[in-house]
Please model this.
Amino acid sequence: MDDRTCKIMNMLRQRGYRCTPQREAIIRGFLKTEKPVLTARELYEKVIESIPNTNFSTVYRNLELLTDEGIITKMDMGKDAALYELKDEKGHHHYLICKNCGKIQETDYCPFKDMELNADFLAIDHRFEVYGLCGACVKNNEEKD
Model:
C-alpha cells in the first residue's frame, strides 16, 4: 500500500471506520488514474479489477461515506451524474468541462480568492466549474456548418 493510501486508511480507522478492501481499492483507483475526476461507474470498474465480486452499490455507498468524511469531493453534474475527486494537499481545484465530449480540464483560476465576504460568514468550501465546448468540439462544430 502506498503512503497516501495508508494515510487515508489510517485516518478512517481513527474516525472509527473499518478499513475494507473496497475502500482501499477506491482510494487506489483515484491514485492510479491520470484523470482529475472520475464517475462512480469508472471507480467501480477500477475496484472490480482487484475485487471482482464487489457490487456497484458497495462502491457508491463508500463514495458517499468518503464524501461525508471530507476525503473526496462530489461534483453534481446534473442529469443524475456526479464526478468525484480525491482531495489532496493542493487544496481545491476548478474545472472547465466540455458539454459535448465530456473532456475535463483543470484551471488554476479561482474567482473565490478575489471575493469579499461578509465578516459574519465563514466559508468552508466552494466549487467553480465552467461548462462549454472544448477547442476540438468547437472546431468539429464549425466544420459541420
